[in-house]
Write a structure and sequence with these properties.
alpha+beta; two-stranded antiparallel ribbon
């Protein structure tokens, strides 16, 4: 029996991706394609696959106190095998790699099980047996030409899920928020995969920074509480400077990670954000979070 542990997007992100995964090219005919082609499945990143002689429990393979993480799309990949037909490669961020290492170590140390996943990290969109040579490449071209996949460069891709019925905010998804881990029975064909258990991950914990630290590109989407800066040589505490604006010492402000909002398809380039802690109006001026005060 083969099983897998999946990192699954939160709703409604998963729902938006399902709309995109329901796309079928013009040449597709159910009568001429293999029954294994274009099966329906939930969007996910496989953290580990393994064999087990008995039916396992999710809590048996999951360590305690696992936090949810942001996931960022990197590029579209097309391979010459069924399970690599067409997928989205994701960035090897510290959060994602730490979660993968945590899961793998728990499998090995606590359960004496060795995982066999070799394609991490990626999110599959389509599985298909080619009805003709080059069909997978043709599917990739159809996604690009229809505007469903937009590749700015080799390490920056966005998915437009609105063309297939998703809400308008998902017109340029650059990732998602991984909020659940599922245990799935993958013994049979894709159409027969069964979800055996689901576990909601903890929200990210808060951490503290000094206002003199770079804060425009935080490592994860966590609440941030500003700490006072170190005293100046004169013994006085200076103000915090963000661009030309000086903020008085000890002024708290929650700084959201813009990558998290982009992962939900929300472009904050021309929007403002009201900090619920200090009630200051913030205006984001860079869509990638490099300098948004």
């Amino acid at each position: 029996m083969r099983y897998a542990l999946w990192l699954v997007p939160s709703e409604p992100q998963a729902g938006a991706l399902r709309y995109l995964m329901n796309f079928r090219p013009k040449h597709y005919r159910s009568s001429t394609h293999s029954s294994r082609s274009y099966p329906r499945f939930d969007p996910h990143i496989t953290l580990a696959t393994f064999s087990c002689p008995y039916r396992p429990s999710l809590y048996q393979f999951m360590p305690a106190n696992v936090n949810s993480i942001p996931v960022y799309f990197q590029s579209m990949k097309i391979r010459n095998n069924y399970f690599g037909s067409l997928s989205i490669a994701v960035s090897r961020t510290r959060e994602l790699m730490d979660l993968h290492e945590l899961i793998v170590k728990h499998l090995q140390k606590a359960n004496k099980i060795h995982h066999t996943s070799h394609s991490f990290p990626q999110m599959s969109l389509f599985y298909l047996d080619e009805a003709f040579r080059g069909e997978r490449l043709q599917l990739g071209n159809a996604l690009r030409q229809s505007g469903r996949v937009y590749e700015r460069n080799v390490t920056d891709v966005a998915l437009n899920c609105t063309l297939d019925g998703a809400a308008p905010q998902f017109h340029a998804m650059k990732g998602f928020h991984g909020s659940e881990i599922w245990l799935v029975d993958c013994t049979d064909t894709v159409a027969d995969w069964r979800v055996l258990g689901k576990r909601t991950l903890n929200p990210p914990s808060a951490y503290y920074i000094s206002r003199y630290e770079p804060s425009s590109y935080r490592p994860n989407h966590s609440p941030v509480v500003a700490m006072p800066p170190h005293p100046l040589r004169s013994g006085r505490r200076g103000p915090f400077f963000f661009g030309p604006n000086a903020v008085p010492p000890m002024a708290p402000c929650c700084l959201p990670d813009l990558r998290y909002h982009h992962a939900q398809g929300v472009d904050l380039r021309f929007r403002g954000n009201m900090c619920s802690t200090c009630a200051r109006r913030r205006t984001y001026v860079d869509a990638y979070g490099r300098d948004y005060f």
